[in-house]
Recover the amino acids of this structure.
């Protein structure tokens, strides 16, 4: 019986293990953030990889399909087009529930409404055009059998607009995904240049066909001197033949090689190939300069942030740090510095006392607005208090203060979420933006970051000496802490006695129906 019971519990145990693996992806169990995904979680990483993979296939395949009119698509091409649409719908859904880091405030946005509004404002329109561009024009109103050229031009234009407007984000996301792999820096540079060159050649190949066709209104209006008419003709429109003929022509003009198979006399084709040739010259110069820097043969000025991150990466390689720890460090510096590096101490020291106070108040304005204790202090005292504070960014699961390791710091949570534990590792509470903690000195409670959090801290002696000038504020602060400690004691007693479990509620009778008097009717009376 015991072996059968163990076997029956294995699927449950496997499910629990899987759920615990994915649990860090979701935000704390607040009602507003219930179904959002943390941007630094495993699920968010998977969604980024999925977007890169599906969008890479979309960039390669979808423009090729537009080389021939949609009425001449084979069943296989139509099937692949529908698969692309399904993948685009999945990635779009993921963007609606995945949080992001605000570049201005450095806050991690996990509110579903803000996430949806930000995505709708910046990227949704372009993603919508990618998988719905050819359906935005109603076929019943604009009959493609009669004026298929116009329908084909408009549908392709909308689809390409969506692709081109998202290509920068695609490269940023691709670089972020590849950086998580253990690959050499030079290999990354070569991979980036190969991807960039392939993308330029691919799009140039497509536009080398579409621009001349659309300039005259379709295939049937191309003149005989066009290279498309000479090589492919009007009747035979195989996608692969059209693409590879155009790729050969574009590659020669892009890299400056000779191409004598066709004489380019058609004006739209001459303009298109001239632009492609100019882009090729510019890219060649850029490629040479980048390769010289990568292989150490030349040096170009870098920003101080790039120099600092280069030193960090060299340090991680020298210490042979694991990939997970490397990723956490890179995400920490990216969130902390926002790709900017400067000596804040030197800048602050050159300011006058008044400007320095205003700067400190500006830095901590969000914390001051949300903390009831700090809001009641005068600006002079508040400026001095903030000047003594230091800020630090804690990643998820970082221990801010541990039980049994006394600290003389008082902490103020500016942004993020911190979980409170007792000495028995029971979770008692969650602290949110604006709340303060640590008055117990780490003797009774442990505080662990539940997500990436920005925390200010100050020594208890300095904090008390500044607050002693305002007796009423200090009395309210101690009263609030005493009430919070009393509530924690009640939660501890309830949880240690079995509270918040089904068995505990059954013993209390809270889950059972209360006895009621019911009317009984006997039919035989």
């Amino acid at each position: 019986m015991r072996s059968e019971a163990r076997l029956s519990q294995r699927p449950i145990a496997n499910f629990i293990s899987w759920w615990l693996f994915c649990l860090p992806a979701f935000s704390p169990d607040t009602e507003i953030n219930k179904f959002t995904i943390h941007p630094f979680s495993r699920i968010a990483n998977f969604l980024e990889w999925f977007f890169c993979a599906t969008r890479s296939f979309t960039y390669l395949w979808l423009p090729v399909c537009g080389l021939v009119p949609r009425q001449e698509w084979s069943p296989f091409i139509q099937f692949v087009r529908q698969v692309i649409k399904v993948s685009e719908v999945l990635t779009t859904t993921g963007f609606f529930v995945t949080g992001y880091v605000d570049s201005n405030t450095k806050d991690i946005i996990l509110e579903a409404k803000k996430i949806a509004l930000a995505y709708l404002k910046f990227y949704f329109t372009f993603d919508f055009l990618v998988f719905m561009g050819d359906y935005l024009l109603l076929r019943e109103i604009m009959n493609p059998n009669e004026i298929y050229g116009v329908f084909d031009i408009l549908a392709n234009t909308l689809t390409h607009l969506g692709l081109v407007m998202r290509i920068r984000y695609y490269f940023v996301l691709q670089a972020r995904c590849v950086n998580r792999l253990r690959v050499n820096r030079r290999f990354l540079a070569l991979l980036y240049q190969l991807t960039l060159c392939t993308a330029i050649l691919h799009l140039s190949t497509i536009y080398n066909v579409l621009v001349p066709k659309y300039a005259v209104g379709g295939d049937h209006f191309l003149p005989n001197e066009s290279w498309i008419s000479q090589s492919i003709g009007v009747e035979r429109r195989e996608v692969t033949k059209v693409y590879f003929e155009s790729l050969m022509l574009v590659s020669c003009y892009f890299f400056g090689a000779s191409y004598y198979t066709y004489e380019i006399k058609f004006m739209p084709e001459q303009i298109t190939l001239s632009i492609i040739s100019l882009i090729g010259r510019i890219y060649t110069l850029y490629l040479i300069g980048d390769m010289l820097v990568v292989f150490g043969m030349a040096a170009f000025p870098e920003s101080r942030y790039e120099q600092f991150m280069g030193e960090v990466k060299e340090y991680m390689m020298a210490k042979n740090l694991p990939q997970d720890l490397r990723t956490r460090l890179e995400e920490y510096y990216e969130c902390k510095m926002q790709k900017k590096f400067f000596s804040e101490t030197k800048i602050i020291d050159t300011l006058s006392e008044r400007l320095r106070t205003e700067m400190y108040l500006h830095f901590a304005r969000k914390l001051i607005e949300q903390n009831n204790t700090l809001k009641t202090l005068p600006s002079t005292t508040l400026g001095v208090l903030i000047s003594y504070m230091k800020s630090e960014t804690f990643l998820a699961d970082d221990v801010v203060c541990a039980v049994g390791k006394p600290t003389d710091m008082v902490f103020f949570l500016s942004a993020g979420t911190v979980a409170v534990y007792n000495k028995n590792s029971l979770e008692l509470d969650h602290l949110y933006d604006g709340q303060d903690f640590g008055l117990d000195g780490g003797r009774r409670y442990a505080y662990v970051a539940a997500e990436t959090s920005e925390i200010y801290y100050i020594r208890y002696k300095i904090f008390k000496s500044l607050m002693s000038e305002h007796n009423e504020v200090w009395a309210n602060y101690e009263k609030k802490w005493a009430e919070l400690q009393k509530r924690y004691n009640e939660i501890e007693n309830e949880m240690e006695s079995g509270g918040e479990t089904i068995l505990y509620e059954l013993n209390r009778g809270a889950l059972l129906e209360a006895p009621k008097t019911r009317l009984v009717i006997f039919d035989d009376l």
